[in-house]
Design a protein that fits this description.
mainly alpha; 8 helices
Length: 192
């Protein structure tokens, strides 16, 4: 015990300090190499992370579409996603016009007069104007337009899920576990 006290009172010898410094330097080199490898692994997950973020956005938008009256959907989307600089009324109208054009010109199931009225009308007023102009319509304009929107968002969601699946499959092919790469991605980017 006295020897230990004496050793501690004398402090570390220069040899001991040099050994500690070398160990610290070696550890720093290893950390740097490990960090570079982690950054490379994290890059493999970047596309998946982007697709997951887009998928989450589409799912939230679909919830808003399903939860609101048709005439209020554009306003509800703009309120829910106020940080995004998007004109939801124009986007929704463009989707309806494109789909109705397909119905009228390709499938020949809908009237081109309906299409012309849709093109001239603001999205929030389209159901009201169609119903007033064509009371003899055997379907429901509101149901038809809502179905168009729901199907489009379900298609977006399906596409994003397929993209994620393809990227995950690529990780498996590379011999990596996606959960491991995701964990590294989160560590590199400081995500909890």
């Amino acid at each position: 015990m006295d020897e230990l006290k004496a050793y501690l009172e004398e402090g570390f010898s220069d040899d001991t300090q040099d050994k500690i410094d070398k160990e610290k330097t070696a550890a720093k080199k290893d950390t740097s190499a490990t960090h570079k490898k982690n950054i490379e692994l994290a890059k493999l997950y970047e596309d998946i992370a982007e697709y997951e973020e887009e998928l989450e956005g589409f799912e939230k938008e679909l919830e808003v579409i399903n939860a609101n009256e048709l005439k209020n959907i554009a306003t509800a989307l703009a309120q829910e996603f106020s940080d995004e600089d998007r004109d939801y009324a124009q986007e929704l109208k463009a989707i309806v016009v494109a789909t109705w054009t397909h119905f009228a010109e390709v499938e020949k199931t809908h009237s081109t007069e309906h299409l012309e009225l849709i093109k001239e009308t603001e999205f929030c007023d389209v159901v009201e104007k169609l119903s007033a102009a064509y009371p003899e319509y055997d379907g429901s304009f509101e149901k038809d337009i809502r179905n168009i929107l729901v199907q489009r968002w379900e298609a977006f969601i399906s596409i994003k899920k397929e993209h994620i699946k393809e990227e995950v499959d690529d990780l498996y092919i590379a011999g990596l576990k996606p959960s491991f790469v995701k964990r590294i991605y989160k560590q590199v980017h400081g995500i909890k």
